[in-house]
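Why do we bother with a discrete structure alphabet at all? Because it lets us treat a fold like text: something you can write down, compare, and reason about line by line. To make this less abstract, here is a complete entry for Acetolactate synthase. Read it the way you would read a sentence in a foreign language you are learning: slowly, and without expecting to understand everything at once.
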Amino acid sequence: MSLPTPLQAFSSVPKDEGRGQAGITPQGEPMTGAQALIRSLEDLGVTDVFGVPGGAILPTYDAIDDSVGFRFTLVRHEQAAGHAAEGYAVSTGRVGVCLVTSGPGATNMVTPIADAMMDSVPMVVVTGQVGVASIGTDAFQEADIVGITYPVAKHSYLVTKAQDIPRVMTEAFHIAQSGRPGPVLVDLTKTAQNEQMVYSWPQEMILPGYNPVTKAHGHVLTDAAKLFAQSHRPVLYLGGGAMRSNARQQVEKLVQVTGAPVVTTLPARGIIPDSDKAVLGMPGMHGTVVANGAIQHSDLLVAIGARFDDRVTGSLEDFAPVARVIHIDIDPAEIGKNRHADVPIVGDVGQVLDDLIPAIEEAQKTWGRPDLKPWWHLVDSWRHDYPTTWEETPDGSLAPQWVVKTLSDKADPATIWVSGVGQHQMWASQFVDFEQTRSWVSSSGLGTMGYGLPAAIGAAIGTQDDEAPRPVWLIDGDGSFQMTSEELATAGQMGLPIKIAILNNSVYGMVRQWQTLFYGSHYSQTNLHDGDAEETGITGIPDFVKLAEAYGCLGLRAFTEEEAREAIDQANQVNDRPVLIDFRVWKDAMVWPMVPAGASNDTIIYKPGIQPLAGIRPEQEEQEPREQTGADRAAMASDAAGHMKK
């Protein structure tokens, strides 16, 4: 048996060599490596693939014909292929698949790979690579994509032999969707694509040491149950891991058994219905006052598939200062990474809760169920006194918050909501009513502008064959949308009935908000269109209505609330092509509440001059608004916002 070369070692030892059966020809169907890749995708049950062809992947594209068992979506940019695969995966729970070429095609995939890694999205990315003999020679469109993606992918393969392809694809899909989901790269040399091989299925995986823990072990369940029995101010802090685990039923049962309030991070919106009284909304930088107040005053914080992200915690040392922590996560690297866990539980959220809930019920039989009425009295007072709201605009333009709330009120309850990244993303999380799981698709951890449109395409494609296809609404900003607006061609050509709401303020809104609050209103390079339309005769750069029409989509524009309602109603009736609505909104609208970066969540600014949690210790129950007394940046932000509004 010959040992693998260094290049082959990236994809582990081929199956026939690993068994020491040198000289024995594998049994199966003869074909090329490119044909084997297509056959592998079919045998893995793939129904949709997103991509763009190119030189180094042409043998594989040549193997795609009308008889293939999956639908191929040709996007206009490789990054869009990645985000479309993410939107597909998040909305369906299946693995998203991309197929692109080498060099710039592969490097254009780095952003969606990193995005999928941050948000634990299962994705398999197949990239073309130059021939084995050309690797390391700086050949045309050669890039070491395995090395480039090593820090931002769950796993990366370089495949140099055709016979490895079925096994590597089997492993790639298993890795992508097991344990903590994530993106897997398969870099496929032209040599491997063109070689002859013998295809057989199923394949045996070679993954020594890869055994994700899914069930809790030891005494951690009884320890956690005991903490629940001793807690009088518990909070369930739900993250994206709960959504990836499809743990809605278990979470609802946990809420019922414990009576604890729930906060949901950005990727967990909709894990249980917003209409449930237990749901306090999103915590953190732009979370609700009640969600932040509950965490800060909790005596038990139960992190379920969450990772204590800085946008949630603010100043980590000031986060939930008196709470004991139960941390449930399938990734052991997350346990204790940012916050010490009094009870660390490694395992799949759904399986852990299946075992934890009976343990809690047994503990309640022994110690009784804690009286949470005083806790709920405090929580409900925050919810009543500091609801998520907005003020009317001073110039008569549309309030972006009103637009989002109106979109939600008029939407089908089964709607999948997608967003880009920016102020509109936060307003969508705040004002859309999420009632179903897998109804929210957004770039959370990486915050990738341009994510929205391709992700909406992926969500629409992933659900269009369902018995009852779900409507898809994209809420985007004019800045974020323009980063991948070319994908209107993809959506228009396919006749996807995506509805696109652009909150058009002609600026990079979130950056402008920070410039207002922290940089003395110095708006450096954030204005996207200067000049009044009446003076310039230009409706906007671009004119989104004309842009939509150029791609075969329906374009609408709304300046007033009456026009907005009419446009939304019209859009909801169109089912044969995309609809884009250009909502002209106030450019100085801000996202409130807000915790300045790095400040304690106790300094949350409900609106300029009002910091409800500042100066209140966890054991106190005062509810009077406090003037700015928190961190310097919080005071600066509050003062700046108040001055601007005057």
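What the structure line is telling us, in plain words: The chain has three domains: 29-199, 218-386, 400-584. The chain has a mean pLDDT of 92.
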